[in-house]
Structures are given as structure tokens and as C-alpha cells.
Design the sequence.
């Protein structure tokens, strides 16, 4: 098994299609809290759709354009982080995260994102990783700030969700800024 320890009983592990049952149970616990922010939460509602979500990321990883890893706390899947939209030629990608309510407030997102950013810059050789969130997602904005990212601006009404359009706030980290002081 491949793991990356985060401390305090937490670790990162690959989140692969054969973990669909565990992923679905996690989504069932997390869905209400993460659905407005993470599109696959509302699409992963049964075993087949959960497996399809994880397969999509496995396909991205095989193509070199993304990766998803889960955050396990004391042996239970509680969240994750993903890198997607990777354009190796341009050196760009986007990071995303989610965490179920029972695991919040422990610094897991910050530690998991540091590991993913370190991998993106040092292993993948990316030049820029962006973080996109809605301006009303206070936890996400706080995480981007804790990571030392730079707020770049807002795209107005760029994110459709359930019949309404929302703004998207962009943050980024550049390779030469990593790791932040």
C-alpha cells in the first residue's frame, strides 16, 4: 500500500476505482456539506456512479493530466485532494479539496494540499497551480490563504450550480514561490 503520512493518525492514499464502496460511504457522509463546492459529490450517489467518478480520475492520471488522493483519518476515508486540468506543456494545473464535517478543524486540508503542491511542483514540474472557489466558501478561501497562495481576482458569474450562476475566485501558487516562507 502506498501512503503518505500527514500526522495525527491521518494519511494520504491513492483513491482508485476499486475503492468505490468506501468512497460512496464517505460521499454519503460528506455530500450535504461539500456538494455546493465539489461537483462530483452530487454525481456519486450509488456504487456505479462512485466508481465512474474514481475511474475518471484514474483516466486523468493515466493521461498525465490529473490525480486524486484520499485523506484517511484513523483508517476512515474523510476527504481528499485532487490535481486536475494539468497542462504539462504550459506547466499549469488546478488543485481541489474536500473534507467531511467530522474531520474539519484539524489542519488536514492544509497538510494534504502541501503534499499535493509539493508533488505538483517538484515531481510534475508544474510552474503554476491555481485554486478556484466561490467567494462564499469561507473555508476554502482560508485554506488558500494558509497555503500562502496569492489571490488573483474574481470571474463574475462563471460557475453554474443548480440553475444559478456564482462568481469564481482565483488564487495561485507559482513554483518559484514554493514552499512559502
Sequence:
Amino acid at each position: 500500500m502506498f501512503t503518505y503520512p500527514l500526522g495525527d493518525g491521518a494519511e494520504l492514499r491513492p483513491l482508485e476505482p476499486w475503492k468505490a464502496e468506501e468512497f460512496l460511504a464517505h460521499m454519503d457522509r460528506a455530500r450535504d456539506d461539500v456538494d455546493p463546492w465539489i461537483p462530483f459529490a452530487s454525481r456519486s450517489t450509488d456504487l456505479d456512479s462512485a466508481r465512474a467518478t474514481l475511474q475518471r480520475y484514474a483516466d486523468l492520471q493515466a493521461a498525465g493530466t490529473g490525480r486524486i488522493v484520499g485523506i484517511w483519518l484513523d483508517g476512515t476515508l474523510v476527504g481528499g485532494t485532487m490535481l486536475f486540468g494539468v497542462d504539462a506543456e504550459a506547466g499549469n494545473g488546478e488543485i481541489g479539496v474536500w473534507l467531511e464535517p467530522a474531520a474539519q478543524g484539524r489542519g488536514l486540508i492544509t497538510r494534504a494540499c502541501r503534499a499535493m503542491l509539493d508533488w505538483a511542483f517538484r515531481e510534475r514540474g508544474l510552474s503554476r497551480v491555481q485554486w478556484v472557489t466561490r467567494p462564499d466558501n469561507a473555508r476554502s478561501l482560508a485554506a488558500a490563504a494558509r497555503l500562502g497562495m496569492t489571490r488573483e481576482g474574481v470571474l463574475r458569474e462563471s460557475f453554474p450550480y443548480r440553475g444559478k450562476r456564482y462568481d469564481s475566485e482565483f488564487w495561485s501558487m507559482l513554483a518559484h514561490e514554493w514552499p512559502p516562507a
Residues 105 and 139 are 10 Å apart (CA to CA). Helices lie at 20-34, 40-43, 47-63, 108-123, 138-146. The first strand starts at residue 4 and ends at 7. Residues 4-177 form a domain with the Aminopeptidase fold (CATH 3.40.630.30).
